[in-house]
Amino acid sequence: QKEVEQDPGPLSVPEGAIVSLNCTYSNSAFQYFMWYRQYSRKGPELLMYTYSSGNKEDGRFTAQVDKSSKYISLFIRDSQPSDSATYLCEFDLGGTSYGKLTFGQGTILTVHP
Amino acid sequence: KAGVTQTPRYLIKTRGQQVTLSCSPISGHRSVSWYQQTPGQGLQFLFEYFSETQRNKGNFPGRFSGRQFSNSRSEMNVSTLELGDSALYLCASSPPGRDDTEAFFGQGTRLTVV
Predict the structure, then answer these.
(1) How many CB pairs below 8 A link A and B?
(2) Distance (Å) from the C-alpha of residue B50 to the closest C-alpha of chain A?
(3) What is the pLDDT of residue B96?
(4) Closest Cα to residue B32, out of B86, B88, B101?
(5) Residue B9 near residue B31, CB atoms below 8 Å
(6) How many Å lie between the alpha carbon of B2 and the closest alpha carbon of chain A?
(7) N or C: which end of chain A has fewer CB within 10 A?
(8) CA dihedral (A44, A49, A54, A60) positive or negative
């Protein structure tokens, strides 16, 4: 079993749609849960960060973590063409893991006008 | 504040050659990590350096090595290149004094081995 499984996509949605991106994980030692966005020919950039179960909202983005079920989600409301990118979930053990981040495979999202 | 800078952006090498990639972290960041990104395997952790010391490494063969200088700049080296080493190599730096790793990525070096 892979340590992290991310819904593979790709996803294609119309502008204004609500997008749901999901990852499951098996390592209960993960302490920090992040979502990165990667545009074509660019490096990933941090989008959302959380360390506890529950929801965290930032503008049109909501990150959800359910530690008991071992899954995390990212919701995008009122999606825009500029949201078209690859979205990566990322898991961090914290402490002395020193940079050893575990990423999902990524979901390619296309928002068409 | 300038972001993470990686050079070169693109590189084409022949099998058997070696290559050195460079990364300049964000000013004040002392932790630098390297990752390999491929369509099949996704983003995989190579190693992490802090104050010129390797603190952690991933599951890559010894052909992959790195170092960090006193100004926190880092280089990674791949010797005896194989076709499978073709990938986007990403460097990330992290701010000090945190338990988690909020990674700020560069744009990457696209390595093609022919």
Answers:
(1) 73
(2) 9
(3) 81
(4) B101
(5) no
(6) 14
(7) N
(8) negative
pLDDT of B99 above 90 = no
Query: Which residues in chain B are closer than 8 Å to A104, comparing Cβ atoms?
Result: 42
User: For testing the chain B interface, which of A5, A34, A86, A100 should be mutated: the one with the most B CBs within 10 Å?
Assistant: A100
Q: Which residues of chain A have pLDDT under 70?
A: none
Locus of tokens 């964000």? B26
- Map tokens 């972001």 to a residue: B3
- Higher-confidence residue of B107 and B98: namely B107
CB B35 within 8 A of CB B89: yes
Length in residues, chain B: 114
The letter for the amino acid at A93 is: L
**pLDDT tens-digit map of B19-61:** 999 999 999 999 999 999 999 889 999 999 999 999 999 999 9
Mutate to test the interface with A, among B100, B107, B109, B110 (most CBs of A within 10 A): B100
Strand segments, DSSP code E, in chain A are 4-6, 11-14, 19-25, 32-38, 45-50, 54-58, 61-66, 71-76, 85-92, 102-103, 107-112
Tokens of A55: 């929801």
Q: Can you tell me the distance from the alpha carbon of B51 to that of A66, in angstroms, rounded to the nearest whole number?
A: 36
Nearest CA of chain B to the CA of A87: how many Å? 12
Report whether B92 contacts A92 (CB < 8 A).
no
**Chain B residues touching A42 at Cβ < 8 A:** 107-108
